[in-house]
Amino acid sequence: xxxxxSQSGRTGRRPASQWxxxxxxxxxxxxxxxxxxxxxxxxxxxxQFAGVGGDVEFGRYRGRPIELEPGGFMAxxxxxxxxxxxxxxxxxxxxxxxxxxxxxxxxxxxxxEAILYEAEQSGMTVSDSRLTRELVQHPQFxxxxxxxxxxxxxxxxxxxxxxxxxxxxxxxxxAYVTDILEGFKYSEAEETFFAQxxxxxxxxxxxxxxxxxxxxQEVRAFAEDNEHRMRRIxxxxxxxxxxxxxxxxxxxxVDDGRSFEEVARTxxxxxxADGGGMRDPQFYFGMEQEFLDLDDLDDxxxxxEGDITRVMETTEGYAFFRIDEAPALPDxxxxxxxxxxxxxYIVQFESGRxxxxxxxxxxxxxxxxxxxxxxxxxxxxxxxLESVLTDFFPINIGxxxxxxxxxxxxxxxxxxxxxxxRFFETAFRINIGTISEPVLLRDSVIVVxxxxxxxxxxxxxxxxxxxxxxxxxxxxxxxxxRRLLDPQFVEDNFSQAFAQLRRRPQQPPQEQxxxxxxx
Length: 519
Description:
The chain is an alpha+beta fold. It has 20 helices and 18 strands.
């Protein structure tokens, strides 16, 4: 079948702009630190964690705890990120959206603490007069555009202290960023080298072997080779946090005669509890991630219909099971969805099989393309491949904005190519008209033929040269962040803390302290 085309000296030069005259300060402040002066406007909420305070520790920086304190930096960051959260994400996946908000606030709090630590070690501080001038301008103390003595005096003392502390920290942070980045310098040689990154440019013809085209016969062969893991079972479960609680629940069913469904609804903590513990049919390979000891999983699959298992340790706690339908091999001819489940498992956990197969096919194709030509090989009946003709672009790993993006001749982005160093190493090393060795991408294997090479247009080099100060400072900012947040300084307990918040029951409104909303 014919191939199918996809649609697919040292100087410190400074421009005149007020912001780009200090690009390091600008980039680090916006990209890394976020907003320096945090407002006190609360964002909309769609769920709540009640009564969260300093007793929940999300992690530590050099031994200093990162906690959510009312009015503190992490709380303010959480509110700010929540306000920026996409409304559709909140509605469609509120739990994931909440995780993103809290994780973002924690990351900002870590960086904030790191900068304050560095400033403290250097003896950096802020004068009382400078702090007073900032507080006078704070939005919470403004009325009709002027400082209001009444607003200041009527505010609770604790809230005033929170504002004072945050403002002081913000001033110290701003001074740190300025001192580190404002005066950076670079050489003319560096600037010239950077401009030369704009070329040469090449365009390519690419044949693509997609992992989605992994043939059905290979999926069936995997199933036949792993028949033990292809068995499918239907069970109901009861899961408890401790072994003692699980044994107690098992006794209620076996000894006291309570129905399995009733025990599941009242005692189980897993996601099937509300449905009486009943699960959809599951493959052995699909349950492997749930069991800490595969001997327990083997024991489960050795049971007969109606059997009740002993208590077993799982990733969610301690569970026992009722066998609702005994293990059996599916009929893949009659159940295409079962074969799809096997394919999905291979993609997720056995992707090396797909890579090896596609690399072998791509090598066979390459040998044919070398002798017949890539276009001619694509048109042979044996191959049904996607191919693409690209536009001209230079070596641009990661699609840096100051260089032309990696795209096809219609202007559609080719993101996987842009993220692959191996692609650029191969595609720009071989001669024009040469067929490359197969190149492995994230979900495909490609064979590349460079068609043309040219020098970049003059304006491209000028654009790259103008972008150098900002790009230089951005890379410098990222290096500073990596140094500050070196894993040896960071204790990350976020997952445990977030899970602890999710398990907390809400208190009645009259008993609540000022609440910490999920968003």
